[in-house]
Structures are given as structure tokens and as C-alpha cells.
Amino acid sequence: MRTILQALSLLLFSLLLFFATYKLPDWFPADIYLRLDPLLGLNAIFAAREMIGRALWGLVTIGATLLIGRFFCAYVCPMGASIDFLHLLFFRKKKRSNLKTESSFRKVKYFLLIVFITAALAGLSLAFFMDPIALLTRFYTFFLYPLSITLVNLFLDVLRPLSKALGWVSLSHLHYFQPVFYMSAITLLIFGGIIALNLIAPRFWCRYLCPLGAMLSLISPLGIFKRKVSEECNECMKCQKNCPMGAIPEDPTKTRLRECIQCRTCVQVCPQNAVTFPATLSIGGEYSKIDFSRRGFIYSMAGGLGAGFLALQTPYTLRQSKFQLLRAPGAIPETEFLRTCIRCGECMKSCLTNTLQPCLWESGFSGLWTPKMDLRLAPCDQNCNVCGKVCPTQAIRSVSLEEKNHAKVGTAILLKEKCLVWAQNKICLICDEICPYNAIVFRPIEGYRRPVVIASKCNGCGFCEQRCPVLGESAIVVVPDGEIRLKEGSYVKEAKKLQLEFKADPGDDKFILEESGFKIESGKKYEKNPQPQKPKGFLQ
Questions:
Q1: Which residues pair with 448 in a beta bridge?
Q2: Relative to the CA of 223, which of 3, 70, 255, 361 has its CA 20 to 30 Å away?
Q3: Strand 275-276 vs strand 411-414: parallel, antiparallel, or unpaired?
Q4: CA 407 – CA 326 distance, rounded (Å)
Q5: Rounded CA separation 23/353 (Å)
Q6: Cβ-count burial of 161 within 10 angstroms (0-12 exposed, 13-18 middle, 19+ buried)?
Q7: What is the DSSP string of 16-40?
Q8: Number of neighbouring beta carbons within 10 Å of residue 16
Q9: What distance lies between CA 509 and its chain's CA centroid?
Q10: Would you list the domain boundaries of the chain?
């Protein structure tokens, strides 16, 4: 039964990620697993120093754990399911010796939990480093999802000749957009390392490192379902050898309640049927105490506070002024954004055009893994607002399409020394033709037809930067100048207050094919309706 429930949970997790697309309806909670993660929720609330509605879903998991016990790790957690299935695939017959320092290893996850909570109280979000739901979401987003699209397209390429021969026109031309993400190799190495730890002990990650498991273990002994061993036990120790969490000590009639995940493996392997999980209101247990020294507690708190302070003092902080980062439309102000974002990668997975990419050091240590817009790679589609819908902490606000399109992310600027029109007098209309708001127009400047940017019409969508034919860096780039970052309130109202207008006005370019906007030869009369021709000032 547990295996079936794990498989269903992992399948649901995968389907939710798959359906997190621009067609996602407002009522569909594709980020439900991230919302149910109490560690991520508390981390965001403490770091932001305010209540976050979606983060309160984690109270459901806490309440269920208080009632039942630490069942989440055994039945719901998709990372636990992935570890178990891959363990059966690769390490089932692996023989291991007992860890001599197991008690010391078990303290690690509690140290990490204190570090993450304390750092959050200091204003630094760190839980994303080791939270299992965030880790697995990033692995799916940056590695598994692009790989699956690649394999599907390869399969379609193999079928293409047959499809053409059979007259299946739609299938013969079917091709899915291939997403590409930075840091995909690093993500694979991290996930691979977590799985490889099973060589040392089954569920090594869950036993010794998982901070979410540590949080749930603190309240799990209060659950009503607890392991009980009857007098029929013959101490064959099969339960101890097969327990995936090492929750059974040398005396098989006892249980480390904090480590027990209610998996019932001991029930299945017991030849005497001596193990049951009856409902009981007793609290605690002989082996439920955490062997946690006062010194270790103080060191962990100091580590979290120190990390929060040093995050603003590291050498990488100096790089923040070297990069002009563009955040997704609807992103809250930068300071609050860095505190609230849990770096799950859900917004990057759901991005229609693949413009959202993870940061490395561009925003300092505190900005690691946060989403940025790479408009040279792809623009921001103006008919998509899914990044806000799937953000579990609302670091990117969920707003309507109209509000999203008024959430100005920056302004395009022309690099005249690289522009084909400005620098080489060549004919190029691409940036003007592709702009959805007609924010780029051609004006007569010193007798020549030149492109200029109307800042009040540009919302920073990046179509011009992505389509610019100049090799390497684009001749027109979007910078965060004039960006609108609101924690609350209407972007439409703010844009009107700033006298911004994001509407196409084709009439502003009427002189492109007219001669009146350029130098007129001496003595030549201007015709009201001249024939279209190349304007003067361009190479013929």
C-alpha cells in the first residue's frame, strides 16, 4: 500500500509540474506541494517578517503530523519516493555496515534546521539549499523537464518519415519547444549526490540531513499512531535490519519515535506478527529524546545569524552593482523578493518562452538560484502571467494579464555603436516591427532615419533584444531603469501615475516611407503621396 501511495504522490507531483503552463487556470494550485511544505513556508514568513497566505498551507501538514505522526516522509514526500524507488533500482542488493557514529549523524539535520530558521529570522533565505520539495522541483525543472522534451522530439523525428508517408500532416510537423536552463549540470550533481548517499545507508538523506524531516520529527511523537511490539516477539531483528529510517534500536521492542515515519515495513517483515500501530494518546517514548547539546544549539544559532550577516558582506555582494538584473513582471521590491523567494524553480519551469533563468552570483550570495530574465535568450510573452500563479510565496505576485503588462520590468536602450542603422547606415526595421507597443520608432535625426526608444511606451518585454540581428550582445538591451516593483496595489494605476502608456500607436511611424522626415534635395518639391522608396541616408 505504501509503495502505491508513494507512486501516486510522485505521479501527482510530476503532473502538477507538467500542467504548470501559460494555460493554467487561476483555481488550479500547481504549486500545492510547495505550499504544503511547512519549512519553506516558515522560512518565507520569518525572512519576510509578515504573513504570507499561501505559506499557511504548511499548517495542514503540521496538523496532520500532530494527529497521525511523521507520515509525510513515508507517503507524501516526492523526494522520499524518488529515493526509495531509485534505491530499489540501484542499491537493493548492496550490503552495508552499521555507522559507528550514527548518533552524531542524526544531529546534523537538527543543526541544519536551526541554522535555516535563525538565518530566516536574520532576513536571509537559506532553506532552499536543502529543502526536499524545493530540491526536487529544481531537479525536475532544470534537468528532467528539458531532457524529457529532448527525448520526445527525438522520438517525433524518428516517426516523421512514417508520418509523412501515411499522410499524418499534424504529426509530421509536430515539434515541442526545447527549454534550456543554466546550472542544469549542477542540479543533476546535487540530486545524484543525494541518491548516491544510499550507498552508505538506506534513506541516508532522510535519516541524517533533511531539515524538513527534522521539523516534522519534533512533533511526530505527539501523533496517536505509534509502533507497539507484543510479547510474541522472538527478537529475530528483521524489523531492525529492514527499517529504512533506523528507527528501531538494539531492543526491537522499543522505537525511536522521532525517526519513525509510519511506513509499516516492520509489520510486513515480522514473522510473528508481533508489530502493530494502534491508536494511543501516550506522548513521548524512551528513545524519542534528542541528544542535542547546549553548545551545539548555540553554535547552530550563531551559524544562522552569522550567515545572515555575512550574506551582505561577502565578496560576491560587490558583484550586485555589476549586473542589472531583470526580475519577472510582478516581482515584489528586490529586498523583499530575496527574502521571500524560496528558489524552487516553479516559475522558471512554467515560463512560456524560457526567459526566466536561475541566478548564480549576479545578485550576490543572497540571490543564488533566484529567477532572472535573460531577454537575449527569449522575450517575455505578453499573453502569459503564469509565473505569478505558481509562486508559492508570492515573491512574484499573481496578477491579471492587464496588470502584468503594466508591471514594467525595465526600459530598452539603444547601443548606437552596435546598431546597424546608427553605426553602419544599413536598413534594419526588426526592433521597430517586433515591438508590441510601438515603443521603438524611426525619427529624422540630422537628415537620417534613425530608431529611437520612447521610454514611456516600453514595458521591457525584450522582443527587440531577442530579435536583434547583431551577433553577440544585442544592439538594443533592456535595463531595469524605470521598473515598477510593487508589494501591493495596482500596476495599472501606478503606470498611469507615471504617465506610461503601453498601447500600440502605428501612426507614430507614418513617415518611415515618406520623404518629409529626411533631407530634401534643394529645389525639389514634396509630393503629398510619394511612392514608397528607400529613404536617403541608407546604402543602396
A1: 445
A2: 3
A3: unpaired
A4: 12
A5: 13
A6: exposed
A7: HHHT-STT--TT--TTHHHHT-HHH
A8: 21
A9: 40
A10: 410-540
Helix (H, G, I), strand (E, B) or coil at 443: strand
Q: Is the dihedral of CA 192, 198, 202, 208 positive or negative?
A: negative
Q: How far is CA 109 from the centre of its chain?
A: 23
10 alpha-carbon distance from chain centroid? 18
Q: For residues 66, 68, 74 and 79, what is the CA-based torsion angle, rounded to 10 degrees?
A: -30
Q: pLDDT value at position 415?
A: 95
3-state secondary structure of 13: helix
- Number of neighbours of residue 242 by Cβ within 10 angstroms: 15
Question: Cα separation of 270 and 261, whole Å?
Answer: 17
Backbone φ, ψ for residue 476 (5° rounding): -135, 120
C-alpha span between 109 and 157 (Å, rounded): 47
Look at residue 525 in the predicted model and tell me its pLDDT. Answer: 43
> Rounded to the nearest 10 degrees, what angle do helices 58-68 and 38-48 cross at?
130
Residue 420: which region, alpha, beta or left (left: phi > 0; alpha: psi -120 to 50)?
A: alpha
User: What's the rounded Cα separation, in Å, for the pair 417 and 10?
Assistant: 53
Distance CA 470, CA 509 (A): 23
Q: For residue 378, which of 463, 444, 457 has the smallest C-alpha distance?
A: 463
Judge contact between 195 and 86, C-beta under 8 A: yes
In total, the chain counts a number of residues equal to: 540
Where the chain has pLDDT below 70, the residues are 96-101, 282-289, 291, 312-323, 504-540
The HSE-up count of residue 484 (CA atoms within 13 Å, CB side) is: 26
Given a contact cutoff of 8 angstroms between Cβ atoms, the answer to whether 516 and 529 are in contact is: no
Name the H helices within 458-536. Answer: 463-467, 491-497
Rounded alpha-carbon distances, angstroms, from residue 530 to 441, 449, 516, 534, 539: 20, 17, 10, 12, 20
Cα 205 to its chain centre, rounded Å, is: 21
Which set of grid coordinates corresponds to residue 148? 524529457
Q: Pseudo-torsion of CA 247, 95, 110, 395, nearest 10°?
A: -110
Task: Give the C-alpha separation, 224 to 67, whole Å.
Answer: 6
- Between CA 512 and CA 281 the distance in angstroms is 82
Task: For cell 521610454, name the residue.
Answer: 455
CA neighbours closer than 13 Å in the CB half-sphere of residue 437: 24
> For residue 398, what is its C-alpha cell?
499573481
pLDDT in tens, 185-215: 999 999 999 999 998 888 999 999 999 999 9
CB 382 within 8 A of CB 301: no
User: Across the chain, which distance is largest between two alpha carbons, in Å?
Assistant: 115
Return the CATH number of the domain spanning residue range 410-540.
Answer: 3.30.70
From the number of C-beta atoms within 10 Å of its C-beta (0-12, 13-18, 19+), residue 458 rates as: buried
Q: What DSSP designation does 209 have?
A: I
pTM: 0.88
Q: Which three cell numbers stand for residue 249?
A: 534500536
